[in-house]
Amino acid sequence: MSLSSTLLLKPNEHSPILLSHMNADLLESLFRLGKDLTEFRPYDTPDELELEMRKVCKMAKTGENDNEIRKLFAKHIANYADSNEEDIRIIDTMYHLYTTLPLHRIEPERQSELDLCVSYLRPVLARFVDVAGSIHGSWPNTASSAASAEKKALKDGSRARQPDFKLFTINQYREAYECGFGEVKPASKCTDKYACNLDLLRLSRFAKQALDELYRKKIFVKALPIFQCIGEKLWIYSFFHAADGLYVMMETGCIGNIPTSRQSLLGFVDEIGLLMGIWRTCVHIKRALEGRGRTPVALDHLRPTITTPQYKEIIESRDCSRRSWVRHK
To answer: Alpha-carbon distance 214 to 294, whole Å?
Structure first.
C-alpha cells in the first residue's frame, strides 16, 4: 500500500515488518484517530426491532406465508415511520431483500462477478450509499474520473482504471466528484491472493486520487467509504488523510455472509448495522459539500499518486508468492 502513500490497517492483522517499524501503541493511536475522525461505527439495532426482523426472516425461510410477511413489513414500516433514519433504512433494506432474493441459494462457485454485483450487492447496499439529491452509488463500466484527469495532466497514455462500484456527488443533476469505491471478486477467485490484494491496491489508488481532488476543490471531507467483496464476504474500509503525506485505509467491519437467498436473511440481521457506517460517512460528505467538513488540510501535505507504468513495473518485479497478511477466506 506504500505505493500510494497509504497505510492499510486491519485489526489484529499486522505483519512483523509493520510492527518492527511502527509499534502496537502507535498503530492503536491511528485506529483511535480514524474512529474519532470518521465516526465510522456500527449501529446497534434496537432489541425490539431486531426481534421483529428475526421473526419475519424465520417465516421467510419456508417460502410460505408471503402475504402475511408483506403485511408484517408494512406494519413495521408504518410503526417506525417517525423513528430515526437508521431504523427506517434497516427495515426498508430487509423488505427490499425479501422481495428481490430467491428462496434458495446458488452455490458460491457458480456465482459470477456480475451475479454478485447486480443480484446481491446492489440490493444490500442500495439504502446505505444514497443521500437524496447529494450522493449516489452506481456500478459503472467506465474509468474513474479522478484517475482519467490525473492521467491527462501527466500525459499518461495508458488506459485509466475502472472501479466495479463508485459513489459520486451530484450537482445540477450531473456527476460532480467521486467519493467512494468498491471492488468485487467471485468466490472462485478467493484463493487468488495476488488478484485480491491487487484489488486493495487499486482501491487505495482510487480513493487517494478522489480524496486529493476533493481537497484541491476545498471540499474537506473526513473520510471516504470503500469496500471489497470476495464471494459472499464483504470488507468495509474508511479511507482518510491522517498526517503530512500519510493516508490510512482502515478496516471498520466485515460482513461474513451477504444474503444471497431468503434463507440467509436471518444471519444478516446481526450484521446489517455495519453498513450504517457507510451511510454516516456519506452524510459527512454531504456536510462537507455544504462547507461543514473537517479542519482544512494543507495541500502541501498531499502526495502524488504513482503512475500506472511505474505501478505495473514495481508490482511485476515483486515476489508475489510470499505470504500475504490479508485474509480473504
So the answer is: 12
Please say whether the beta carbons of 204 and 6 come within 8 A.
Answer: yes
Q: Among residues of the chain, what percentage have pLDDT more than 90? A: 28
Predicted confidence (pLDDT) per residue in 264-282, tens digit:
999 999 899 889 888 988 8
pLDDT value, residue 226: 94
Section 51-59 average pLDDT: 91
Per the DSSP assignment, residues forming a β-bridge with 228 are: 183, 235
**How does DSSP assign 10-53, residue by residue?**
-TT---HHHHHHS-HHHHHHHHHHHHHHH--------HHHHHHH
Q: At 147, list the grid cell.
A: 484517475
DSSP 264: G
Quickly list DSSP for 79-121. HTTTS-HHHHHHHHHHHHHHHHS-SSPPPGGG--HHHIIIIII
Dist. CA 203–CA 123, nearest whole Å: 22
**Rounded Cα distance, 184 and 165, in Å:** 8
Q: Compute and round to an integer the Cα radius of gyration of the chain.
A: 20
Looking at every residue in the chain, the average pLDDT score rounds to 83
**Burial level of 9, CB count in 10 A (0-12/13-18/19+)?**
buried
User: Residue 120 and residue 232: Cα distance in Å, rounded?
Assistant: 9
What confidence score (pLDDT) does residue 320 get? 53
Q: What is the pLDDT of residue 325?
A: 43
Mean of the pLDDT values across residues 302-326?
64
Across 24-28, 122-126, 282-286, least confident range: 24-28
User: Is-contact 166 184, C-beta < 8 A?
Assistant: no
Whole-prediction pTM value? 0.85
Average pLDDT over residues 178-183: 94
* Cell numbers describing residue 255: 460482513
Which contiguous run of DSSP H or E holds residue 200?
helix 193-216
Strand partners, 224: 239
Left if phi > 0, otherwise alpha if psi is -120 to 50, otherwise beta: which for 124? alpha
